[in-house]
Amino acid sequence: MFKNTPVEQSNIEKAIKFLVTNFEKSGKNPKPVILHSIKTGMKLLDYGYDENIIIAGILHDIIEDTDVEYNDIANAFNKEIADIVRSCSFDRNITDRFERGKELIGRCIAHGKDAVIVKIADRLDTIEFQKNLYKQNRNDDFLNNLIIEHIYFLDRTETMMKHEEIWHEMNDKLNEYFKRKN
To answer: Could you tell me which CATH number the domain at 6-181 has?
Structure first.
């Protein structure tokens, strides 16, 4: 549980600085990843999750989208945060998008609740971004694939997460998103 102490605030600020510095050095994603990553961490802060989960939320895309590696995170923060971030990072060796997502979901579940919580916060922000992309492009295949991915994720995590309010928020958002399409 986040207690909002000066040390916790300082550590979260350190994570944001680490994120921004490394994206400036070696960022590879043209999307607004820094803002997305901060929003993900702040969602977890709003829910009152502990400091490690919040920091992992802030850093969740850093392995995928920069030259930062697991050991860099473990050395700058701790092994627990590095483990969560690695669990939430796509395996770029898997070329099929859906298969890559399934593997990632399996890895998050295998790691445990903390990684799934971070991935839910990530997806909550991503759903909004994707909804706006759909409005611009009106590509039904794009939307249908996203809905399938999110449903797959929710179905696989329901037993583990059904008592977590953040899981229900994602489920509600997906239902809202799906209704708007129909």
So the answer is: 1.10.3210.10
